[in-house]
């Protein structure tokens, strides 16, 4: 009876998250990590490697080892860090929230795990990332300068810079004409 209940709950979890799941590209993932406070660039490639090895960049990844030991989401966070159906665990979040495409809570919990246990918490990082060649994320457009402003704000800033440059050029030309006389 208990096994059947676990199967039904797992099936419902998988079915409900299938609609809201996302598989990131490497650059999309890098951008999302930068937006979610993973600014230490020395570790960013390690995080990308970890996620690629643990979940293949899929937000709905869910592994059931035993009814009491399950792993959720991009980072494959263990069930001791969350609680099924309601907030709880060491990260005080619902396990289901680790399976949707909003990765803010996933990132916060993963960072908490990292602060407590380091990368060694994730066995696939230990075996497949540590000391290995890490993913090349430097080619991603947001690697050097993550976007800080909305496109509209960037447009206004560029227009303001153009106007200032035009005014400076006009003043320069006017002074040049006066100087020639």
Write a brief caption for the model.
With 181 residues, the protein is mainly α. The chain has 6 helices and 3 strands, in the order H-H-H-E-E-E-H-H-H. The protein has helices at residues 2-20, 26-35, 41-55, 104-117, 123-128, 151-180; strands spanning 62-66, 69-72, 77-78.
How are the SSEs ordered, and which strands pair?
Blueprint: H1 2-20, H2 26-35, H3 41-55, E1 62-66, E2 69-72, E3 77-78, H4 104-117, H5 123-128, H6 151-180
Antiparallel strand pairs: 1-2, 2-3
Catalytic activity: Hydrolysis of (1->4)-beta-linkages between N-acetylmuramic acid and N-acetyl-D-glucosamine residues in a peptidoglycan and between N-acetyl-D-glucosamine residues in chitodextrins
Family: Belongs to the glycosyl hydrolase 22 family.
Enzyme class: hydrolase
Biggest pleated-sheet summary? 3 strands, antiparallel
Report the count of strand segments: 3
Please state how the strands of the largest beta sheet are arranged side by side: 1-2-3
Following the backbone from N to C, one meets helices and strands in this order, namely HHHEEEHHH
- The percent range for helix content is 40-55%
Specify the overall morphology: elongated
User: Which residues form runs of ≥5 with pLDDT under 50?
Assistant: 12-19
Radius of gyration: 24 Å
Q: And the CATH topology of the domain at 26-146? A: Lysozyme
Question: What would you say this structure looks like, in words?
Answer:
The protein is mainly alpha-helical and 181 residues long. The protein has a domain of 121 residues: Lysozyme (Orthogonal Bundle). Helix content is 52%, strand content 6%. The protein has a 3-stranded antiparallel β-sheet with strand order 1-2-3. α2 crosses α3. The longest helix has 30 residues. It is elongated. Keywords: Antimicrobial, Bacteriolytic enzyme, Disulfide bond, Glycosidase, Hydrolase, Signal. Pfam families: Lys. This is Lysozyme.
